[in-house]
Amino acid sequence: MDDLPLSDLDAFAAIARERSFRSAARKRGVSASSLSDSLRRLEERLGVRLLNRTTRSVTPTAAGERLLERLSPALSEVAAALGQLDSFRDSPAGMLRLNVPSIAVKLFMADLAARFLTLYPQITLEIIAEDTFIDVLAAGFDAGIRYDERLERDMIAVPIGPRRQRYVTAAAPAYLDRRGVPQHPRDLLAHSCIRHRFLSGASLPWEFERGEEVVVITPSGPVIANAVEMEIEAALAGLGVIRTFEELLAPRIAEGRLVPILSEWDSDFSGPFLYYPSRNHMPAPLRAFVDFVRMEQRKSV
After folding, report:
1. Would you give per-residue pLDDT tens digits along the chain (301 residues)?
2. CATH number, domain at 132?
3. Residue 278 CB: number of other CB atoms within 10 A?
4. Interatomic CA distance for residues 284 and 72, integer angstroms
5. 207-to-55, 59, 106, 241, 266 alpha-carbon distances in Å
6. Computed over its alpha carbons, how large is the radius of gyration of the chain?
7. Are residues 187 and 263 in the same domain?
8. 271 CB contacts (<8 Å, ≥6 apart)?
9. CB-based contacts of 279, cutoff 8 Å, min separation 6
């Protein structure tokens, strides 16, 4: 195994994580054929088939699953060790991959990323927005952004973005004129509601709080979507009641196109966190980003 190329192992891990030669090649900035060559060399050298591939799919074999499970942490440590060389550069350089919820992209990530990359122009920042709860490290990310109820306990968490947020409820004036104004969350059971469904298939109940009282309902209605833009457009069209982040609805409320309802039941909650594993050797791009985020939070206090 002394002559086993590390680059071939890394290529295998990238293909296995993406379940696609093209996707892995695009993210690595190489050709799909070069990754195919790396995988072929690795399988020939090991004498074991690692991936099953057809014209439509790429899936790890049992051996491939086992290798990927053990290999991912090791490759992360290698990347971190190489990243330490950035301390000898004038500025950190390299790739930083973040997995973030779509709401973070809409509310603050674009501005934050622009200011960060202005300070560190040699860093390449890759942001993947998705609301599915995944193991970000196993998926090849350096860090993720999640809300506190979704944070793994063995992770280090750093506040990022707004520190307090609210869920508000609203509907178009025409809808309220037609159906009446709900006075209590349970009244929504008799109303048309616009629901959000995550890519995982989950559609969460609506939870309302007023003082010590908590009311949880499972709404129904004519629209279910996994894109908040579609949900807002449906509410503006008078198709039903929407409940989502205040920041997303505030412009429409200010314009009078949506009317807030059940305001005393608005839900206040903690903002998101950047989270990453505790490591002896943190990659230099991640260290720079963590320091930058902490500095931004101190400015906002």
Report:
1. 556 778 888 889 989 988 888 888 877 777 888 888 899 999 988 889 999 987 778 899 999 999 998 888 888 777 777 666 655 555 788 899 999 998 999 999 999 999 999 999 999 999 998 887 777 777 778 899 988 755 566 678 899 989 889 999 999 999 999 999 999 999 999 999 999 988 777 788 999 999 889 999 999 999 999 889 999 999 999 999 999 999 999 999 999 999 999 999 998 888 999 988 876 667 889 999 999 999 988 877 6
2. 3.40.190.10
3. 8
4. 18
5. 45, 39, 23, 14, 9
6. 23
7. yes
8. 147, 159, 160, 161, 162, 163, 164, 165
9. 76, 77, 80
Cα dihedral value 158, 162, 166, 167, nearest 10: -80
User: Are 268 and 166 a contacting pair, CB within 8 Å?
Assistant: yes
d(CA 283, CA 295): 18
The residue out of 51, 82, 113 marking a domain boundary is: 82
Pull the structure tokens for residue 90: 């004038």
| Residue 241 near residue 170 (C-beta atoms within 8 A) | yes
Domain assignment present for 183: yes
